[in-house]
Amino acid sequence: MSDLGAMESDETVVTKVTAGSVDETVARLSDLLTARSLTLFAVIDHSGEARRAGLELRDTKVVIFGSPEAGTPVMQSAPLAALDLPLKVLVWDDGGETKVSYTAPGVLAERHHLSDELAQRLSAIGPITNALVAS
Predict the structure, then answer these.
(1) Residue 12: pLDDT band by 50, 70, 90 thresholds?
(2) Any idea what DSSP says for residue 12?
(3) Cβ neighbours, 10 Å, residue 37
(4) 92, 99 in Cβ contact below 8 A?
(5) Measured between alpha carbons, how far is 56 from 93 in angstroms, rounded to an integer?
(6) DSSP 82
(7) In angstroms, rounded to a whole number, what is the distance separating the alpha carbons of residues 40 and 86?
(8) Residue 55 gets which letter from DSSP?
(9) 3-state DSSP assignment of residue 3
(10) Phi and psi angles of residue 41, each rounded to the nearest 5 degrees, phi first
(11) What is d(CA 100, CA 62) in angstroms, rounded to the nearest whole number?
(12) Theoretical Cys-Cys bridge with 112: which of 29, 39, 81, 124, CB 3.0 to 4.6 Å?
């Protein structure tokens, strides 16, 4: 696979190992998004909400981000793509190792029958997570 540090558990999800804790990784990802003029829409703290409910869950957060300039044409062409957009990165602890996972852009493009031009709009997730792994 061409993504730096990528491991494939299957061909639909890309998982990469990164340094630091889940919180540190989310903070670095947020900084990368800001530096690239992307919108950070939300961080969903699954493990924090589980704790609030009296349950246990490994440190697990989902970072939701994107760009209206990139995503809007995709959704104009394929309205159901709104189910997958904005893009999402799962940041999670796997036995003391922090990992980032996301749906492979090619899978999203195929799912929504996107042209090559529109599919390219989803590909930024690879370089962003590569930069995250390298930092």
Answers:
(1) very high
(2) S
(3) 8
(4) yes
(5) 13
(6) G
(7) 9
(8) -
(9) coil
(10) -80, -40
(11) 9
(12) 81
